[in-house]
Amino acid sequence: MVDFFHAHQAQHYLVLAALLFALGAAGVVLRRNAIIVLMSIELMLNAVNLTFLAFARFPLVANSPMQGGFSQGHAAVFFVIATAAAEAAVGLAIIIAVFRSRTSVNVDEFDSLKL
Amino acid sequence: MAEAVLFYLFAAGVLAGGSQVVLRRNPIYGAVSLVGCFFFLAGIYVLLSAHLIAILQVLVYAGAVMVLFVFVIMLLNLKEEELGELRFTFWKVVGLVAVLATAAVIAWRALGPAYPSTGPARDNAILLAAEGFGGVKAVGRTLYLAAVLPFELTSLLLLVAIVAAVVVAKGKI
């Protein structure tokens, strides 16, 4: 098991990211609670972060074509984290605003835009 | 040796915490297990020698963002009957199958011949890990030299998010 890990390190991280993304996507598809949907979106963002870091640590090319080298992946993760924080703040504010008018967080009931 | 053991340990923690988010009916249990999931993920980031990002993960995700989630869950204080149960309809099964297929395709691409396990990229990766890769200095240089405009725009994004959160959540200004 240890040899298997060292022979295919990058694949381990990428498959873990794929599984985490699938968990998040399943949460968005299956759950109706808007708060849990937002938490599942956070899970998916973290899966993307893990992919960025895995490719920064185990790159496919010998030299980075971009200025800053493979630390560019880390910079991308930094921006994803900042955007996720902003998204969580605004998303939760929207949930509070909708809860005030509907007394519910069930996404199936938020259908006033439906024709 | 230790790296492999730690990876499998952290990966099990990440997947266990993440699955609790999806499976638990009460969102407060989901939020707490999501905090645990983020801590294990920070451990995975350390294994990838992304030390600064691991610290940011604990501070921003497990700290700030999850406090916001727990705060909103407590504020709404949902009753038992408002939580709703996890029931399977036809379209949910279709969605689940689509999700599993997507994950399978991604995993298959990651495991497939597209990703070489040896070669110059791999040697380079080991070299990178040796010289402060992923530390505050290396990532800071990239942020302030190569990505300075997006970095400054991020502060604007956070300001807009603060104002938007207050305007949306507060009924009357």
Structural features, described:
- The complex is a heterodimer of chains A (115) and B (173).
- With 115 residues, chain A is an all-alpha fold.
- Chain A has a single domain, classed as Helix Hairpins.
- The longest helix of chain A has 32 residues.
- The radius of gyration of chain A is 19 Å and the shape is elongated.
- The termini of chain A are far apart.
- Helices cover 78% and strands 0% of the residues of chain B.
- Chain B is built from seven helices and no strands.
- In chain B, helix 2 runs antiparallel to helix 3.
- Chain B starts with a helix and ends with a helix.
- Chains A and B meet through helix 1, helix 2, helix 3 and helix 4 of A and helix 1, helix 2, helix 3, helix 4 and helix 5 of B.
Using the CA coordinates, give the radius of gyration of chain B: 21 Å
Structural class of chain A: mainly alpha
Order of helices and strands of chain B: HHHHHHH
Estimate percent helicity of chain B: over 70%
Oligomeric state: heterodimer
CATH homologous superfamily of the largest domain in chain B?
Answer: NADH-ubiquinone/plastoquinone oxidoreductase chain 6, subunit NuoJ
Fraction of residues in H or I helices of chain A: over 70%
Q: What composes the largest sheet of chain A? A: none
- Low-pLDDT segments of chain A: none
Q: What is the terminal separation of chain A in angstroms?
A: 56 Å
CATH architecture level-2 label of chain A: Orthogonal Bundle
Series of H and E elements of chain A:
HHHH
- Overall average pLDDT of chain B: 85
Number of helices of chain A: 4
Architecture per CATH nomenclature, i.e. the level-2 architecture of the largest domain in chain B: Up-down Bundle
Question: Which two chains share the most extensive interface?
Answer: A-B, 82 and 90 residues
Number of strands of chain B: 0
CATH class wording of the largest domain in chain B: Mainly Alpha
